[in-house]
Amino acid sequence: MIGILLRAAALTGVYLMVLTSVAPGDVLVGGVIGLSIAVALRPRRPARPRAESLAVAVASIDTLLRTAGEMVVGSWRVVLFCLGARGAPGFVEVPRGDRTPHELAMWGLLTGEAPDEVVVDVDRGRDMMTVHLVDASDGDATRARHRRVHERWRRRVPH
Length: 159
Prior knowledge:
Helices cover 62% and strands 12% of the residues. By secondary structure, the protein is mainly alpha-helical. A three-stranded antiparallel β-sheet has the order 1-3-2, with helices on one face. The radius of gyration is 21 Å and the shape is extended.
């Protein structure tokens, strides 16, 4: 219920920002619209047990912190490359492994956050994912890093 109210409040806020108004009538209309949308789009699946929810929360925080770290390291690599440090820009193919379509989407989003790596393609026929890197000189190390991150994430997130 709290989640629905938070979503309704956020949607109401967006509605009021678009209108650039906080008139009582606009707040009321925005609240009704926001609450209607939040109720209509609420999750329909059963709630997870508390222990499982806690495990997902811990894994999510870990993923966010690791992604932030990769963004810092990736930014540093790009700065060094732009200042003339050696690098071998290029493509590296990473095996898809046992990633589900949802995990592929998450992997692509998180990988693209670091400025030194960009997901270019997912070839379902060959089960390969192509990544462009600022320094693709060691493709084996890149593949191993992506495999380690995926395996770590897989262990932490309940299925």
